[in-house]
Amino acid sequence: MENVALINQKDLEQVLKQLNTIHQFIVKSDIKPARRLRSEWLSSNEATQVLQCSMRTLQNYINEGLLPRRIQKRRLYFTTEDIENFLQGKHR
């Protein structure tokens, strides 16, 4: 027997918007699915776009140890692999 879950329209629209953002990022990156997002780096601004969050929320994720970051010349960078893992709930 299959489980059926109900979702309200607002939540559905939010999920679809997030999926569309991720899809656009992948298409824009022109990365083949087999190699998908393994060695790419994102700036803070790009990470906030993919995660659909504010810069402050991104900083909270970092401070809470949920999202690893690298610092290069006083700028924050994130691997796309770390972003994918975060989105899939695989926090460190």
Short overview:
This protein has 92 residues and is mainly α. It has helices at residues 9-29, 44-51, 55-63, 80-87; strands at 41-43, 70-72, 75-79.
What attributes does this structure have?
mainly alpha, three-stranded antiparallel beta sheet, globular, 50% helix, 3 strands, 92 residues
Whole-number mean pLDDT: 83
Structural class by sheet pairing and helices = mainly alpha
pLDDT < 50 stretches: 34-38
Number of strands: 3
The share of residues in helices is 40-55%
SSE topology:
Elements: H1 9-29, E1 41-43, H2 44-51, H3 55-63, E2 70-72, E3 75-79, H4 80-87
Antiparallel strand pairs: 1-3, 2-3
Explain what the structure shows.
The chain is mainly α. The chain has helices at 9-29, 44-51, 55-63, 80-87; strands at residues 41-43, 70-72, 75-79. The protein has a three-stranded antiparallel β-sheet. The radius of gyration is 15 Å and the shape is globular.
